[in-house]
Amino acid sequence: MTENYKDLIPAGFASDSRVWVYQSSRLFMMSEALHIEDLLNNFIANWNSHGAPVKGFANLFFGQFVVLMADERATGVSGCSTDSSVRLIKQIEELFKVNMFDRTTLAFLVKDKVQMLPLAQLQYAVNNSFITPDTIYFNNLVQTKEELENKWLVPVKDSWLAKRVSLSN
């Protein structure tokens, strides 16, 4: 399951293409996911920066993460074009009554399912072996295509979380 997402990332984008990952507070239902896919496709088709089309990509991964990517070698992304992408994410929030901007809730892959955990409960989860050093963590702080491919899904021990908690009991 974890490696399959890489097949959805277009090869024709530079490795330093900018990436934004937005995590939903819940898994989307299939009907919602299809609606979101339409919104994302429409957004990418019309994404501009100072009148020039942005070479962009957008997709819903794991039914819960909206990933936007812009290849700035084609067209630089300005403040206005970034603002338009934030408006899209806010629209998704309103339409589906979810939170897409909560950076205090972490996502992990446990038994092939996305599990959410408040940052404040991370040490408890580690202490009780719900989360182990090898549990896969969704590092939504990735900023480039290369990081998305290689550092988005990482074991907790290889992420910034390793510095936040004691991983050994």
Brief overview:
The chain has 169 residues and is an alpha+beta fold. It contains four helices and nine strands, in the order βαββββαββαβαβ.
Could you explain how this protein is built, in words?
- Helix content is 28%, strand content 24%.
- The chain has helices at residues 30-46, 79-96, 122-127, 145-151, and strands spanning 18-23, 48-49, 52-53, 56-61, 65-70, 105-110, 113-118, 136-138, 153-155.
- The protein has four helices and nine strands, in the order βαββββαββαβαβ.
- The two termini are 29 Å apart.
- With 169 residues, it is of the alpha+beta class.
- Helix 1 runs antiparallel to helix 2.
- The strands form three sheets. It has a four-stranded antiparallel β-sheet. A three-stranded antiparallel β-sheet has the order 1-5-4, covered by helices on one side. Strands 2-3 form a two-stranded antiparallel ribbon.
- The model has no long low-confidence stretch (mean pLDDT 92).
